[in-house]
Queue: 4 jobs
Job 1
Amino acid sequence: MPIHEFNPAPLTRQGDSFFINRKKTFQGIPVPDELLKRSLRFAFDMTYGQKGQHRPNRSGGDIQRDDWILFANTFQGKLAEFCLQSQLAGAGADIPEPDTETWALGQWDRYDLISDGKKINVKSAAYFSNLLLLEKHDWNDKAEYLPNMEDDPMFYDYFALVRIKPDIKTLFRKQRPKAGQIVTEKFIWPIVKNEIWQYDIPGQLPREAVAHCIQNQKLPKNALLNGRIRMDASNYYIQAGDFRNIHEIIGQKH
């Protein structure tokens, strides 16, 4: 997509409040149980299984996240990767399955998926979300992920947004274990299997388009999103309605 053809919409601003104005309706696709189980196992290993560890707060953010919240976030992120990989592979893309190797704190896989030689950064969100947020402290104005630039620079070619239903954060908040309770995979699985799981993919954008948004679309710390959600960190943003069809990635080899 030539960058001159990309015309993203800024959020509507009213004082310190910012309102979404370019939405995309959720169109649910069933999630196979196998993808749920593999995502759960990975998230458990990265948290309660102590085979890996994720950072306890967002870059520049004030909110600390405990293991239960970290598990929910990790589960959502890996499930989004599996769903996108399944969708693209089914459409004919040459795309390996997501990495399920666990990593220590301060280490991470350098990209989420690679399709036909293109590196994809997969962002996940709840089914009702219409905004992709990129934490300001993590990205430069070329849409380069700063932690990846320290030793051996690597760039994402595409950014994809995947939405999950039910809202995982709300689901696990309601099912939080009691203080002192031992959390196992057997404890978590019934919480997952009792729900009807769906996903959709609002789309993708090439790195040049994301860089354009980083340079022009900022949501400051302490701003109110939709007049009610206070941002705990500064972010760049892209509205769901500005994403392009995910299948445009297929066959676009370098």
Job 2
Amino acid sequence: PRARLPRVLGTLSGGVEESLVLLRQHDPWLIAGLIGYLGFDVMILWSTFHAFGASPDLAVIWMGYLIGELGGLLPVPGGIGGVDLGLVGTLVLYKVPVGAATAAVLGYRAIALWVPAVLGSLAFVMLRRSLSQEAIAIANCEPGGEVDVIGRGVVRVSG
């Protein structure tokens, strides 16, 4: 485990550095995507409240979301437990009934965790299939022939 720590820390710092580089570019599409992700995430929480028959003010849901998501800083996989309790607790402090807050947060978390997991699994299977077909095409290609490689376009295979 100790031998992996430097590699894990290096990977983590590389990810943080890459994120900072992207944010410093002030790309309007990136900023729009970040704001859109946040907005749609809050709208999912708002929708689950309405699905369970509760309708707290949108400002309460925003504040509950922003403060409650801090529970995701707890080091547990997927923020399970920390985010849930943080969201419910914050919403209850804003006078949302416990039952409504719990039902809405559990519905929201089910959507927020399982939809990306299912879609990500499908994307992973499709990517593996594409890479497998690509590897077969490269292996069967004659030296000097060309193969379409994901992310690089058409490349010439050397012998």
Job 3
Amino acid sequence: MRKLMYVFSFFAVFFSSCSNDDSSNPGFLLVKKATSENGSSTYRYDGNKLVQVTINASDYVVNTYNGNLITKTARYYADGTLLTETLYEYNANQKLISQKLLFHQNLGLDPTSQAFRRVFTYNPDNTLTYEEYSGTFQNQTTLTHTGKMWLDSEGQTLKTEDYRNGYLFSTEEFTYDTEKTIFENAAGMQKVPNSNSGFAKHNILTYKYYNSMGNLVNGFSNQMTFNAEGYPTEINMISLSGARNSVQFTY
């Protein structure tokens, strides 16, 4: 269920890049298209706000903002049928405190589990803890799992431990570079988790996923290519099995 919780974020984050719409400043770039062997995504902006991502000229994602914070992300089929909504809430310091995923299409799920809500608590030791609940659109009260994230000085997720029924279920580890990301100048994008459920301000270099026995069962490494302005133009992902996938960005 954890992967379901964040599958929607994949399209909005991994295949997106954006910037302030300021042609007078060559340091601010606006991506036009992302292309991989699996298809392509195109992007539409309102200033520096990413308002729509169209996937393979078919399904599309719409972001809603309050100021510079993303408050809702909705995914639609090409015919306009609403598939999912992700709702975000923030504290006074503009840190994410709640993320709720609503499934408007069943997708084979238990009909009593239409929605999932993750609540974040920030701790003074540079960690955060979370609780995740499932239920209906109106109420998510069934605790499904808990977890803890260790953050670096920039608020990036270094490690996550996820627990089910009080027992360790999985561990994730992240490393990063110090370069600009494809969403460097996009309003609100660094405030929400990336496709691997972590918070990042720079590019992920390695990701590792361990099961409850401590065995490494999934992961990848990224090799980046940058343009003269320091923005990624290509990401080459190498999976744990050695499979490769690349994404090219056109600005």
Job 4
Amino acid sequence: MLDTRRLRLRRLGAADEALFVALDSDPEVMRYIGSRGGTPEEIVARVRDRIAAEHGALGWWVIEGRADGAFHGVAALLRMPEGDDIELAYRLARASWGAGLATEAASALARYAFDQVGLPRLVAVTFPENIASRHVLEKVGFVQDGMSDYKTFQVTHLTFEVSEWRKRRAAAGDADRRGRGRGRRAPR
């Protein structure tokens, strides 16, 4: 389980099937997802395959509210279809858009990938027109490095190296230490 200020990410399980099916059945949510569409039966089968798949330290996570357990979406660390790269992916229910939850969840999953799994880098792909998702990934630390083929789509390809993660973490730690400031008074 991964906790953030507002979220809890936990492993996807059989009890999550209905929520995941509802998420993947929303055409607006799936507009920029490579495995979109299909009949209701195909969507259910795809979700069941994801629940049943064993990914070891990788795999699918449910994004839920830490305080209330509300379902916000799913995130994943998955092997890319070709090569050895690991993709960070996510999708949120429409009711959860625009609140910074994608950034919070993606940051938590990147931290887990680098600090606990020990991955040297992560990749992400977005449809070129999905500017909001690219912005989320860039806030987390991903850098756009061109276009690539993904499944049957031409996508924007982004990478995030563990060395960059360490630099960002060190800078955040320095800022935290400076913010505490020895002998500083709080504003009145």
